[in-house]
């Protein structure tokens, strides 16, 4: 684990090395100060020698300022090193997530990934900061203070050695008990983030169903779970403080008792006793610092394991060794395709799918809820890989293409497509960042979006709130279609993406697609028969299998499912008209 995280130091190696160096120099100066105090007391104050007092007083001031300088430099370097370390780690985590396929993302919830990129990285950063500062300072202070304490009085220095085993056992017990709790807490953070995320994204639904009380209760329960676990862990960690205080004051009392007797006996001076107390305090404070590091490492260890889960996740969609770098046509062919989200042949959502589509054709896909219409089209841009069989685009297996080249040739307007914070123009430019204003206007006109955009005071510079919260469902769909068209794809997939627009607008969009994009292969998933009636071929899906393929007239004559859908919708339409 440590080796894997070491690489994230990256370009901050200098700061990472300089921080311990300056900390070591700071510790040396701090250890030197009690040594100078010995001479100040014994040779200056006790003897009443003002020259000695001034001399060692001046040296103490100089030592204090030098120690402060080294401490400030160490703080600057360690802060820069830890921040840089966190930046590199967060960047790799984010880039790794960008490489994930849909199945990889399905393994982690979005709330969990957010927690790992924020809370967990912060915990790891704090641990790294403590490692290059406290974990260096504490051992150095411990070693130097022990050397100085034993050089003054080996007998008195043995006092703290009796305390150390008690302290070590206590720290070990606290850490072993606390770590499992911290691991559990971060999983509950994921749940809390999920509750908040769902509440904010579904705020309109929550308010329309007057479910605020339920959502508040869910939040309280998640928050309470975290509070209880964290309280338990913190109670365990809090035991370290009293344990340290007991050790420090017990040592000082014992040293003061035995030291006073030695002064009376003439085997120890007052200055030596004061210095010895200072060194013993430094030794025990070093041990307290070690305990702080152990607590932080215990917390960050759970975070580190969660970060590594993401970093070590095997991406199941990767480029071949020699990828095809050009999609020559929009021909699409499915050969004996079966698909399972779990990669398990016993739980297939698509079974033995076979069909051919020529470039420029319009294909309608229709079927009941759960018939796997979306699953089918997601295999074309290789958002998932087939479990069995092959999907060919332009005569080439999609697994042989460079992923970015393939997806650049396919525009997908998904059921849950989103708009991002920014202007309408900035959102449309996702389709082609170099598109001209004329191209943007033309794409918007084809998607029947220009008419409502022109009604906005700022037109294409109108700001879209996060997720498109300030536009209607139909407007959002038309904007996402325009964005897809701006890409000028060889294959266009509309996954029930006109469900929120009226039938007249839907017809205009289909007419524009047919007339303006004659060479683009078009897949239209729809619930309405009217949206697919004019397609060159219509695929009827039923429970993941093809129930029929043909034109509207052919299916109406030969396919029972299609005929039932047509009959129910046409009767509903006539009843509505009446």
Descriptive notes:
The radius of gyration is 35 Å and the shape is elongated. It is an alpha/beta fold and 578 residues long. The N and C termini lie far apart (71 Å). Helix content is 64%, strand content 10%. It is built from 20 helices and 12 strands.
Strand content: 5-15%
Helix content: 55-70%
Global geometry: elongated
CATH superfamily (homologous) name of the largest domain? ABC transporter type 1, transmembrane domain
Give me the secondary-structure category: alpha/beta
Look at the structure and give the mean pLDDT: 83
Q: Runs with pLDDT <50, length 5+?
A: 573-578
Name of the CATH architecture of the largest domain: Up-down Bundle
What's the CATH C level of the largest domain? Mainly Alpha
Radius of gyration: 35 Å
CATH overall fold name of the largest domain:
ABC transporter transmembrane region fold
User: How do the strands of the widest beta sheet line up side by side?
Assistant: 6-9-10-3-11-12
Domain unit count: 3
Number of strands: 12
- Largest sheet, strands/sense/barrel: 6 strands, mixed
Kindly report how far apart the N and C termini lie: 71 Å
Q: Figure out the total of helices.
A: 20
């Amino acid at each position: 684990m440590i080796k894997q995280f070491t690489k994230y130091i990256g370009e901050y190696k200098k700061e990472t090395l300089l921080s311990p160096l300056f900390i070591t120099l700071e510790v040396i100066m701090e250890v030197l100060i009690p040594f100078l105090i010995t001479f100040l007391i014994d040779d200056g104050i006790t003897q009443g020698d003002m020259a000695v007092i001034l001399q060692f007083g001046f040296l103490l001031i100089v030592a204090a300022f030098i120690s402060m300088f080294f401490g400030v430099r160490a703080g600057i370097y360690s802060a820069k090193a830890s921040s840089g370390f966190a930046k590199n780690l967060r960047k790799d985590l984010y880039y790794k997530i960008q490489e994930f396929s849909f199945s990889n993302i399905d393994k982690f919830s979005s709330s969990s990934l957010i927690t790992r990129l924020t809370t967990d990285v912060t915990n790891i950063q704090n641990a790294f900061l403590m490692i290059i500062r406290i974990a260096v300072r504490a051992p150095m202070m411990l070693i130097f203070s022990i050397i100085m304490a034993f050089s003054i009085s080996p007998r008195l220095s043995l006092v703290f050695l009796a305390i150390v085993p008690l302290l070590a056992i206590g720290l070990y017990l606290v850490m072993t008990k606390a770590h499992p709790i911290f691991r559990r807490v971060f999983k509950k953070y994921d749940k809390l983030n999920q509750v908040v995320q769902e509440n904010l994204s579904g705020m309109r639904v929550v308010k329309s169903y007057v479910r605020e009380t339920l959502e508040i209760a869910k939040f309280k329960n998640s928050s309470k779970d975290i509070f209880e676990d964290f309280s338990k862990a913190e109670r365990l960690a809090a035991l370290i403080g009293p344990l340290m205080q007991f050790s420090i004051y017990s040592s000082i009392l014992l040293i003061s008792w035995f030291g006073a007797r030695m002064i009376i006996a003439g085997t120890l001076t007052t200055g030596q006793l004061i210095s010895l107390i200072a060194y013993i305090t430094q030794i025990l404070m070093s041990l307290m610092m070690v305990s702080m590091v152990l607590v932080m490492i215990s917390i960050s260890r759970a975070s580190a394991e969660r970060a590594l889960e993401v970093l070590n996740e095997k991406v199941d969609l990767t480029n071949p060794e020699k990828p095809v770098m050009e999609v020559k046509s929009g021909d699409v062919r499915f050969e004996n395709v079966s698909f399972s989200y779990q990669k398990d042949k016993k739980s297939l959502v698509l079974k033995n799918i076979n069909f051919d589509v020529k470039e420029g054709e319009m294909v309608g896909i229709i079927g009941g809820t759960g018939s796997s219409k979306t699953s089918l089209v997601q295999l074309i841009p290789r958002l998932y890989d087939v479990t069995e069989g092959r999907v060919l685009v332009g005569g080439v297996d999609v697994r042989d293409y460079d992923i970015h080249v393939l997806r650049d040739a396919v525009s997908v307007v998904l059921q849950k497509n989103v708009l991002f914070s920014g202007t309408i123009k900035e959102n449309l430019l996702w389709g082609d960042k170099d598109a001209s204003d004329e191209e943007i206007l033309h794409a918007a006109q084809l998607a029947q979006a220009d008419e409502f955009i022109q009604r906005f005071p700022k037109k294409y510079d109108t700001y879209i709130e996060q997720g498109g919260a300030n536009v209607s469902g139909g407007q959002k769909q038309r904007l996402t279609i325009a964005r897809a068209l701006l890409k000028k794809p060889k294959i266009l997939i509309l996954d029930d993406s006109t469900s929120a627009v009226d039938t007249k607008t839907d017809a205009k969009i289909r007419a524009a697609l047919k007339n303006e994009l004659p060479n683009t292969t078009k897949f239209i998933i729809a619930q309405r028969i009217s949206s697919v009636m004019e397609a060159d071929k219509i695929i009827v899906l039923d429970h993941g299998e093809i129930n029929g393929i043909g034109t509207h007239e052919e299916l109406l004559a030969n396919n029972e499912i299609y005929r039932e859908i047509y009959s129910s919708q046409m009767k509903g339409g006539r009843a509505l008209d009446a």
